[in-house]
Design goal:
543 residues, alpha/beta, six-stranded mixed beta sheet, 18 helices
Length: 543
């Protein structure tokens, strides 16, 4: 938000006041831009204009300043409304949070860059109303070096073959819309949940592990333009056009995947608590002004399309684009909730069954249950960034110190290259223990306690429990007693959840479900062990 030049304005207004008194005339001083933007003009025949506080995004502020200035200058002439605008600039997500909090520093009118933020501005009493659906647009595009666009058939396909650098989806419209585009295009691509998750899970983990999320385009676009870079950045066409103007040397191009794209739509939203009818009228007058020749030219020069998504003038931008179906409010909420969960770092202990039954061959495969489990865990390990914290245990019966049913192979630690290699080496060295039983209950309790003892409050703390059967340790606790202990270990302020992954036809789904639910976790069963990779991805999404 820009601030007023308070050191100038009192002097200026005093001079104007003296002039008004000297001439015996009546003038109105109007602000048309941010409080630091325009000095206002004198003129018109309005002595009591409607005061309108307007908030918009920084990139759209200059366009609105010109439009409001023209609109206010006509006030009182030929039936034009008498309006005085004061414009401030802030990111749409910030305004939505402020409105949702019920704070007093709210604008009367709001022009966010996307209507997806309107539902998130609900303060519990009312959702702001959209007076005009759109006064400008800008389609989402993918920006990168030409060599990174061998596959532009879909958003998912391009993301899978490059290194996407999203602006923070929780605070940026382009970041959110890129995730929504992957979901929206599924009506055309028929991509499965697993195919989508294989791209989004590691992406969320990688971006979530960054010390600071991308919040503006110059940083990721600079990385995308570097020689040999495989970074692609989803941004608005307007942001790309502006970057081109400011950095003509950058070797970047923009594409719209073959499935189509979503559009930033710049609605006019009424957020005033009082005088809503007059404010709504002001918003509609502003929208009408945006259709004038002068405002249309300023909008186009700023890199914005009109409300019909017509191509930019002079051959700039991407020309005609195919639009994907606009996402529903429910779809927006779902994708943001999912991203919030997925992007949290992991503090997890993988606990793998090495009992005798894990040596059984899987029907239709030359591999054993053990081999398929190790492959799934190995592939899963690749989805975690270096900042994640993981450890590795194995369990059967009486395989650890003091005849414990579990043995630590790698303690929980950050996935540095050395720690990661140690995890992979230990995984691949495991084999099923001939004659070994499944000491499930004692292991589950010990694993939860181990994660609790090294709890990381900034991460999702879990036990990833892989097993192909049910507890068959005659010397262990009963299931009821085990559940009682797990319930006793629960701490809402420091949750540690079991994510149980059953493998093959002998896995006891009910037992695993009860163990997981006792900790607030979930259980998944791959009846065909060859499906374990997909089940593992599902489990990661439910953290």
């Amino acid at each position: 938000m820009t601030r007023s030049n308070n050191s100038r304005r009192p002097v200026y207004l005093t001079a104007v006041g003296l002039l008004v008194l000297a001439l015996g005339a009546v003038f109105v001083v109007r602000s048309f831009g941010s409080e630091a933007g325009a000095d206002g003009i004198l003129g018109g025949s309005c002595d009591q204009p409607t005061q309108v506080k307007l908030s918009t995004t920084p990139e759209f502020q200059p366009v609105l300043e010109q439009a409001t200035k023209a609109l206010s200058a006509r006030g009182g002439k030929d039936g034009a409304p008498c309006l005085q605008f004061t414009i401030t600039a802030a990111q749409s997500s910030s305004v939505a949070r402020e409105l949702a909090s019920g704070g007093d520093s709210r604008p009367d009118l709001w022009v966010p860059d996307s209507s997806l933020w309107v539902s998130r501005a609900d303060d519990g009493e009312s959702v702001p109303t959209i007076a005009v659906p759109s006064i400008a647009t800008s389609p989402l595009v993918l920006v990168g070096r030409s060599e990174n666009f061998a596959n532009t058939s879909s958003w998912l396909g391009t993301f899978a073959e490059t290194q996407p650098a999203l602006l923070d989806p929780l605070s940026s419209s382009s970041g959110t819309l890129s995730l929504l585009a992957i979901q929206a295009e599924r009506a055309k691509t028929s991509a499965s949940n697993t195919q989508v998750a294989q791209v989004l899970v590691p992406l969320a983990q990688r971006l979530g592990s960054m010390a600071k999320q991308y919040t503006e385009v110059n940083g990721p676009l600079s990385k995308a333009s570097a020689d040999g870079s495989n970074v692609v950045v989803p941004v608005s066409e307007q942001a790309f056009v502006k970057h081109q103007d400011e950095h003509p040397e950058a070797q970047l191009k923009a594409v719209v995947p073959g499935t189509g794209t979503l559009v930033l739509d710049y609605p006019v939203v009424v957020t005033a608590r009082n005088n809503a009818e007059a404010v709504t009228a002001a918003g509609k007058a502003l929208a009408e002004e945006m259709l004038s020749d002068a405002s249309s030219q300023a909008r186009d020069e700023g890199g914005f399309r009109d409300h019909l998504v017509s191509p930019l003038g002079e051959g700039r931008g991407e020309g005609e684009v195919t639009q994907l179906t606009k996402p529903t409010v429910a779809a927006v909420e779902k994708i943001l909730q999912s991203w919030t969960t997925l992007s949290l770092s992991a503090h997890s202990l993988a606990v793998i069954d090495v009992s005798g039954s894990m040596a059984e061959k899987v029907a239709g495969s030359a591999k054993t249950r053990m081999q398929l489990t190790i492959e799934a865990a190995d592939n899963g390990l690749k989805m975690f960034p270096d900042s994640a914290e993981l450890g590795l245990w194995v369990f059967s019966t009486k395989i650890g110190p003091d005849s414990a049913d579990f043995r630590q192979l790698v303690p929980i630690g950050k996935l540095t290259p050395g720690h990661r290699q140690r995890m992979i080496g230990q995984l691949k060295a495991q084999s099923a223990r001939v004659g070994g039983g499944t000491g499930l209950y004692d292991t589950a309790i010990a694993a939860v306690r181990a994660v609790r003892s090294s709890y990381n409050s900034g991460a999702v703390n879990t036990v990833l429990l892989f097993t192909d059967g049910k507890n068959d340790d005659p010397g262990s606790l009963s299931l009821d007693r085990t559940l009682q202990i797990l319930n006793g270990l629960k701490d809402p302020a420091r949750p540690v959840r079991i994510i149980a992954l059953g493998i093959g036809p002998d896995a006891d789904a009910d037992e695993l479900k009860r163990l997981a639910q006792a900790t607030g976790g979930q259980a998944y069963v791959a009846r065909n062990p060859t499906d374990l990779k997909d089940v593992f991805i599902d489990a990661l999404q439910s953290r």
